[in-house]
């Protein structure tokens, strides 16, 4: 009988955690989960279980990639906690200087930006260098439940909530030193999601007064344009990707019955339309997202799969068709 070593020229290694940079065709035995795994190409678009956060929480902010992400802040217990994901596990790292949640975020796991948030309503901005958070210049318009996207030195903060008047249409760009107010979104809202860069961004969903929105708007670096709506209106959702290739996942609609008011729904944006694809394994809202539309991360939030709702640290990893993926083999 031909062995794996004869085919691939390598043994199946026994390791305590999945390799951080596996190569196509590599196979290993994970002694922690007691399963055989390999690295190949995904044939279906699906969510799978990732490592659980150390601190269950909702209204947190996320940015980075599927294998190198940051989850920071929270409104529940007004948290400054920051955790780093390495593709397998979450590790607690240095806290934010000012505890808050419902903030915007941008950047990578080694060069990030965290801005706005509450309580109290804040315009505070902090940069992350991979080790520490540093306070820098505030936003021009303090607000929370806004959308954030871009990089540490070129970010966008969009819409959000601030009394008086509730939802705001403000858009601000960050150049690495200061925030500058630019053209507003067409529809002011809060608890929306977004992705992209400060010159090519997408925002979607959210809340307008008591109405739940499916609106999607596209930013070209100068103006916002309304484009095709989400299939399912929702608020407190998360997103990942770029302006022409995005994911929207989770969220809620309080107008729906309790059993269906929170969503596991995932929708894919192709630059023109949204299409419903594979659901999260559990219904949740007020979660965070990171990554792309083919390699995404969904983590934290409020788990409403089994009432009453509870804060969660669960993590799910999305792999689209044709994307590199760690595969668990059935050897029974």
Give an overview of the whole structure.
The protein is globular and about 60 Å long. The chain contains 1 helix and 33 strands. The model has no long low-confidence stretch (mean pLDDT 91). The chain has a single domain (49-320), classed as Kelch-type beta propeller (Neuraminidase, 6 Propeller). It is mainly β and 332 residues long. It has one helix at 4-8, and strands spanning 13-15, 27-30, 35-41, 46-49, 61-64, 69-74, 79-85, 90-93, 104-107, 112-115, 125-128, 133-136, 147-150, 155-158, 171-174, 179-182, 193-196, 201-204, 207-208, 211-212, 216-219, 224-227, 238-242, 245-249, 266-269, 274-277, 284-285, 288-291, 295-299, 302-303, 310-311, 315-319, 324-328. It starts with a helix and ends with a strand. It has a 4-stranded mixed sheet with strand order 1-2-3-33, with no helix packed on it. The protein has a 4-stranded antiparallel sheet with strand order 4-32-29-28, with no helix packed on it. It has a 4-stranded antiparallel sheet with strand order 5-6-7-8, with no helix packed on it.
**CATH topology descriptor:** Neuraminidase
Number of domains: 1
Share of β-strand residues: 35-45%
Question: What is the subunit organization of this protein?
Answer: single chain
Task: Estimate the global geometry from the Cα principal axes.
Answer: globular
How many E-type strands? Answer: 33
Which features does this protein show?
332 residues, four-stranded antiparallel beta sheet, Neuraminidase, mainly beta, 1 helix, four-stranded mixed beta sheet
């Amino acid at each position: 009988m031909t062995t794996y070593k004869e085919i691939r020229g390598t043994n199946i290694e026994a390791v305590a955690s999945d390799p951080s940079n596996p190569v196509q065709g590599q196979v290993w035995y994970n002694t922690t989960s007691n399963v055989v795994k390999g690295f190949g190409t995904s044939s279906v678009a699906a969510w799978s279980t990732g490592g659980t956060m150390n601190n269950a929480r909702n209204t947190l902010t996320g940015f980075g990639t599927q294998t190198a992400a940051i989850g920071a802040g929270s409104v529940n217990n007004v948290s400054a906690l920051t955790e780093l994901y390495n593709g397998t596990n979450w590790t607690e790292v240095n806290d934010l200087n000012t505890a808050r949640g419902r903030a915007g975020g941008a950047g990578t796991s080694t060069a990030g930006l965290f801005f706005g948030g509450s309580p109290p309503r804040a315009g505070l901005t902090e940069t992350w260098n991979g080790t520490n958070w540093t306070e820098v210049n505030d936003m021009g318009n303090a607000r929370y439940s806004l959308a954030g996207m871009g990089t540490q030195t070129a970010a966008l903060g969009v819409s959000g909530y601030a009394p008086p008047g509730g939802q705001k249409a403000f858009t601000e760009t960050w150049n690495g030193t200061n925030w500058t107010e630019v053209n507003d979104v067409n529809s002011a809202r809060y608890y929306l999601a977004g992705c992209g860069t400060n010159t090519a961004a997408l925002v979607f969903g959210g809340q307008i007064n008591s109405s739940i929105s499916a609106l999607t708007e596209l930013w070209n670096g100068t103006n916002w344009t309304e484009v095709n709506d989400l299939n399912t209106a929702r608020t407190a959702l998360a997103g990942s990707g770029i302006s022409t290739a995005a994911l929207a996942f989770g969220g809620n609609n309080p107008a729906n019955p309790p059993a269906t008011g929170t969503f596991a729904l995932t929708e894919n944006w192709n630059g023109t339309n949204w299409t419903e694809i594979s659901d999260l394994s559990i219904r949740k809202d007020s979660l965070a997202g990171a990554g792309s539309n083919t390699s995404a991360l969904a983590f934290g939030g409020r788990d409403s799969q089994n009432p009453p709702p509870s804060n969660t640290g669960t993590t799910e990893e999305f792999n689209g068709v044709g994307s590199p993926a760690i595969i668990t083999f059935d050897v029974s």
